[in-house]
# Entry
Amino acid sequence: MNSTEDTGLILWVSNDQIRILHQGIEKEVTLPGRWRLTSFGQRPVAPGDIVNVKEKDKGLSLIDVLPRRNEFTRKVAGERTLPQVAAANIDQVLVMAAIVSPRTSLGLIDRLLVTAAIGGVPSQLILNKCDLASKSRIEELWQIYSSAQIPVHFISIMTREGVEPLKIMLQGKLTLLAGQSGVGKSSLANVVQPGLDLRTGEVSSVTGKGRHVTTSARLHPLNGGGWLIDTPGLRECAPYGLTKQNLLFAFPEIEANARDCKFRNCLHKDELGCGVMVAVENGDIPEPRYETYRKLLIEAEMNERKY
Ligand SMILES: Nc1nc2c(ncn2[C@@H]2O[C@H](COP(=O)(O)OP(=O)(O)OP(=O)(O)O)[C@@H](O)[C@H]2O)c(=O)[nH]1
Ligand SMILES: [Mg+2]
Ligand SMILES: [Zn+2]
# Structure
């Protein structure tokens, strides 16, 4: 029998099918039973994974998954500390939020940034819908994230403001778009890759929330080279593998002020002589960032008890 072995790139995964790019051609393959979603909600493959495949007369068969360079992994919803991999082998995560409609969730932004940092993926922040925002709100958000040393881009897909530099940022890279429903992830993909024509949906005027239009994460090829992964909107994000130490990867402004803490092992929660808490009071660390830090610290402590 004629059979050759080489690799393929996973473009998307559903419960029992995957789409894979193999020798320049997109192919659909039925997932073997052992690769399907387990009762624990885990799956061995994610978009962006490279797999070894064997081409046989009757089609492709999957052999194994190559080790990942990095991954973007949340914890499954609920009490269990199990991983849910959104994508693997990513060059950059663009954490996306709207300045207005839906209301910006600073907590979710920070959680996505922490998830990227723990997974070893560089991230940047895209704040969309500038056309609807006041100058003062833009300024306020800029202050928060520049003190956090996170690159932030203010854009409007509607007016195209700030979109051209993003196109350049995406060239030749595998980029994951992550954020709440309705912030404009699919709209951005449609603008940077003409002809893509992904479905988009209006934010509900009743609830002020997005309608969860995109239902699965997919890699889309970009004309200039590279891939863009559009994902379904997230309601919440608990970073997988969160600890008291790696939490600080995404809070450089907190780490910087820890120098002034009285105790070397200060967690900046309620300790005496905490330099971080003083910096929050002085306005050197923005309060919303500190609040999310504190919530994540409590989650990390709970996780550590479970591991
Ligand atoms: N005013 C304004 N509206 C925008 C802008 N960008 C996107 N929208 C609108 O926001 C709505 C939601 O956009 P989508 O692209 O579907 O959002 P999404 O993030 O893909 O949402 P999910 O797929 O549900 O996660 C659509 O009605 C878009 O037309 C913008 O810059 N300004
Ligand atoms: Mg979408
Ligand atoms: Zn401290």
